[in-house]
Amino acid sequence: MSYAVAALVDIDDFIASSQAQGQVWARRQLRRADRAVHAAAFGRPGVTCRPQPPEEWLVMLTGADPEALMSEATALAEEVRARIVRETAWTATVSLGVPRLGHEEAQREAEREARLANDYKLVLGGDRVISSEASAARGALSPPVRIEEELTRRVRAGDRNGAAGLLAGWVDRCASERDVDPGTLRNWLIGELLFVVDVVNRSRLPDGSTDWVEACARLPIEDIVTVGDIHERSYLHIWLRETLGRLMPPPARTDILALAETYLAEHYTDPGLRLSTVAEAVCASPFYISHLFAEERRTTFLRHLTGLRLRHARRLLTTTALPVDVIAARTGYPSAKALRGAFRRHVGCSPTEYRRAGLRP
């Protein structure tokens, strides 16, 4: 009578680190990891090791005592993890099934259970041993937070990276919930992706409802199926950026500039308004906003903001009797001194002199 237990060794963050460091580096690390896994398995009776390219190894343990076999599998898993940390630049997750009685069919079942356990890496994170007990059914029914309002704003602004970052952070937050299993997390994510499709898609049926036939052409079924194969959150983040890049049309330069100018016109009276504030509001980088003002308007962000503030100040000086300090507060300057300085630099006189001269804005 023989039992089988599978241990699936999975390198953590393989795709993300390979993209960051390059394929040559990744191949060198894989060779080291392969030696580490085989060294941990070497000399153990009833243990075989089979690579599962590019970044997994299936270690199969067989024996007559299921409890002893499970203890040996756990010890082997910890040794593999320690060797990989010591001999490579990576960490690893080792997922264990439960002992199965039989021969070939038992080994196939043992591998299936180890892969089911490894699926929980999506919610538990890596650098650990995951046992089959982790894959017990859980019962979370709804996400802990909702992001649709902010997601809509970023999608409509054409901010692909911002939308992907928001979704990635939301996935991490949901994964930290105690009762979330991988399937539930993926279902929530697919729901958010379909929401993005609905926001992006402008085609509507005669009754005003979404034309889902056309909308789903933006998110092919192959993409949805792919989510089911992802068990690494770092790769899921990469996949989100790529998928949203396909779903969302790039924003027009003039649209970004118009959004920035509109935001400035509505908020220039705020003394704390900065380029970074506007950039965040319109989902673009500060550098890009500055570039657009220089190229499209032949001015700078600061000159544009100063022009709005001084135009309002001149109007108040000539149409009201408000003190200069009150006018400064109403036009975005922190003090009367700051307003006087701006007036002398850009108008050529003080606010009081401007008022006495009766000049028009």
TrEMBL record:
Gene3D superfamilies: Homeodomain-like. It holds the Pfam family HTH_18. PROSITE patterns: HTH_ARAC_FAMILY_1, HTH_ARAC_FAMILY_2. GO terms for molecular function: DNA-binding transcription factor activity; sequence-specific DNA binding. It comes from the Bacteria. Keywords: DNA-binding, Transcription, Transcription regulation. The keyword Nucleus does not apply. Residues 258-357 form the HTH araC/xylS-type domain. InterPro entries: Homeodomain-like_sf, HTH_AraC, HTH_AraC-typ_CS. This is AraC-like DNA-binding protein. It comes from Nonomuraea dietziae.
